[in-house]
Amino acid sequence: MNGRVRRVEAEADTALLYVLRNDFGLYGTRFGCGLNLCGACHVLVDGRVVASCDTPLWAVEGKEITTVEGLPEDGVAGALRRAFLDEQAAQCGICVSGIMVSAVGLLNEEPDPSEERIRAALDGNLCRCGAQPRMLRAIRRAAAENGAGGGGGES
Amino acid sequence: MNELPQTLRANPRLSQWVRLDEPGVVTVTPGKVELGQGIVSALAQIVADELDVELTRVRMVPAAAPTGPNEGYTAGSFSIQHSGQALRQVCAEIRAILLAEAARHLTPSDDSGDRGWTVRDGTVEAAGGGAGVTYWELVKPGLLDRDATGEAQPKAPADRRLIGTPVPRIDLPAKVSGGAAYISDHAPPDLLHARVVRPPGPGAVLAELDETTVRAMPEVTAVVRDGGFLGVLAEREEQALIAADRLRAAARWEKGAELPDEDDLPAYLRSAPAQTRLVEEQGRPADGTVRTLTAAYTRPYLAHASIGPACAIALWQDDTLQVWGSTQGIYPHRAELARVLGLDPDRVTVRHLDGPGCYGHNGADDVMFEAALLARAAPGRPVRLQWSRADELAWSPFGSAALVELEADLDADGRITHWRHEHWSNGYMGRPGFAGAGSSAFVSASVLAEPYQPWVAVDREPLAVGGSGRNSVPYYDVPRRIVGNTLLESPLRTSSLRSLGAHPNVFAIESFMDELAEAAGADPVEFRLRHLTDPRARAVLEAAAEHAGWRGGDPDQARGQGIAFARYKNMSGYCAVVADVAAVHEVRVERLVVAADLGMVVNPDGARNQLEGGAVQAASWTLKERVRFDRAGVTSTTWESYPILRFSEVPDVEVVLTDRPDEPPLGAGEVATGPTSAAIANALGHALGVRVRDLPLTPEHIAAAL
């Protein structure tokens, strides 16, 4: 869990989301729908984007979990965080954690995605405030910065 | 002397707004709340500018009742106008008081008052230089415990340092890095988790419930049952979820009210009992009518559909109640809580904490009330109630469905000689504070063992501004007669949703303007300008057309361009939108150009963000959204049955903002909704050569129009 081994005692079919938030105090992973339909609770499990609201605890035992709090300061994640602030790419911000995780997952796999690819990769993330145009700009900016700096490829 | 801004007049004590108790810190307690719109940052910017301190010194305290000023609701795009103007005056007065104090310590270079001083990040210096003295050295206990007088003059535009500049929001760093930023992340020690169990639909009655198995679950702290209000408390959140599922399965409900036929809403809206009122009648029909056009437009019920369902925390302790939540009005909420729970208001404290995006009266007030009901079962322990996605989509108040019928006469020169408008809609004032005796705005108050009547939302005077009639009067220079029908029953609960009736009304008016232009053989921009005299309105319309490369709306390979304009509330921000729409396999909005004149702009980037967001949200309403229901209840309870715009569908948005630093601020959040919907519908009309008058612009409604 975010680079450390963590133990928790809970029912095996408890959704990972509640364990992250209530047992580990990792509130950055947000509750949105509980049905894997909005992306607010996205985390990386062994580098892949998953909905923690729909992932039972037993399924992640022994796996490497990265939440928004555990995203590195540098590389892709750092570039994304800076770009989101530079573009002021949020309104209420409740969807941003999940979008950040989805974007890290995308840019780790595809450092220089097309606009279409970015939009497709984020289609599972809903934003109600209408900040998507800014978020798309931020992700393009982060990809460019990360590519230019040659620092891509971290997980 | 300045006339005091409205909310300052009501809360004149300076120290109720701004305090300098802590060295180096300016503590600000506004009455307005953060809804995701960046208002708290904009207010901090105003304070920092007016007091001449660095923004980092300003500490914004979330609004609380009864400690902070009572500014009513954070709504109606009034926050900069109310709280912003109030804080500007408060800071101007505090600055003047402190400069007067400084005169005892320092010798100014001349006797010309303020001009003899320089303030640098809270340190007052004589203009000629020399040692300074800080605000915090100058302020004495009680110095700011005095009422605003209106004597101090806020800075002139030329002296402003921060106002008008794109300062980054102060709350975003935590929100983009996964900080515990929201009410749902607030976890006081000893927290209990709660869930509620809903009836299958409005008015359903609990006929039978065997709660013994749920009560027997060792991990369940309490099962709450008050009439038809059901909830569970548990030590762990997942246990509360399981217990709520079991309780739901153990309940049998009797059918409630019969909802109208969703597929024939116009018939329902027209036949339901309603209060009919003349909104406005102005001018006499001009001579020379050669042609009359008629059209009817509809909008379905819309959901707030925030990405985070409502959440609140409540704590009962020694007969006092504390509630934390994301209400838009801490004082009205507190009054309603006290009234419905039969408590002395002095025993109730309401504190605002940021919630997910708020676009009007959503479930925030309801969840706070319900948390209070549940927490009574566990005195001394804070209880956090998290609504489910289905709670949020089915039980928050909706923006009302609306039917707008328009009729206009044209003369031989293509001028409108008379305009007639009639609309049917529920009201928009369903918030706490409006409900009369015996009724309540809280959704669960109507199912308690001692129930309150559900409050049927009303429209407030003046009708042309206050609710379903908002923007029903066209901003064009035409003789007109406007009639509004406010329904007296609400099968689905309605209340304030972003821009209220301005959305359906502007959608209808601006669609109809295009139809009239076509009938008159005129270009849609030119036709509007023909009837528009306000120079600021004309400038915004022309700016949108020019920036978008207006090509007159000719269809081009199933692509179309559409334009629409409105002045929000006919007295606030001006906005014109050009939409580029492709209608090949599906309707796709490729680009929105949003031109706006919002008067003085505190934060141009914040204003742009609001305009962009308003336009994208309205595009979502226009293309996809419709609350679905059968005769028993709401059926659109997930993102599959209530789809909203996705990343792959979001248009590019370009904003053209006119700053007018000498004009009063006019608000940004709601101006774009109506013009965006109409511009998209007009573009679709030009792309397909067919007019779709029923929202949303789904394949089904397009096929019906064809």
Which features characterize this protein?
heterodimer, A: 155 residues, mainly alpha, Ubiquitin-like (UB roll), DNA polymerase, domain 1, three-stranded antiparallel sheet, 5 helices, 38% helix, B: 706 residues, alpha+beta, Aldehyde Oxidoreductase, domain 4, 3 domains, eight-stranded mixed sheet, globular
Kindly describe this structure:
The complex is a heterodimer of chains A (155) and B (706). Helices cover 38% and strands 6% of the residues of chain A. Chain A has 155 residues and is mostly helical. Chain A has 2 domains: 16-69, Beta-grasp domain (Ubiquitin-like (UB roll)); 71-149, DNA polymerase, domain 1. A 3-stranded antiparallel β-sheet of chain A has the order 2-1-3, with helices on one face. Chain A starts with 15 loop residues before the first helix and ends in a 6-residue tail after the last helix. Chain B is built from 18 helices and 27 strands. Chain B is globular, with a radius of gyration of 27 Å. Chain B has 3 domains: 6-171, Aldehyde Oxidoreductase, domain 4; 184-255 and 310-386, Aldehyde oxidase/xanthine dehydrogenase, molybdopterin binding domain (Aldehyde Oxidoreductase, domain 4); 272-300 and 398-705, Aldehyde oxidase/xanthine dehydrogenase, molybdopterin binding domain (Aldehyde Oxidoreductase, domain 4, 2-Layer Sandwich). In chain B, the strands form 7 sheets. Chain B has an 8-stranded mixed β-sheet, sandwiched between helices. In chain B, strands 13-23-20-19-14 form a 5-stranded mixed β-sheet, with helices on both faces. A 4-stranded mixed β-sheet of chain B has the order 24-25-26-27. Chain B is an alpha+beta fold and 706 residues long. At the A-B interface, α1, α2, α3, α4 and α5 of A face α5 and α16 of B.
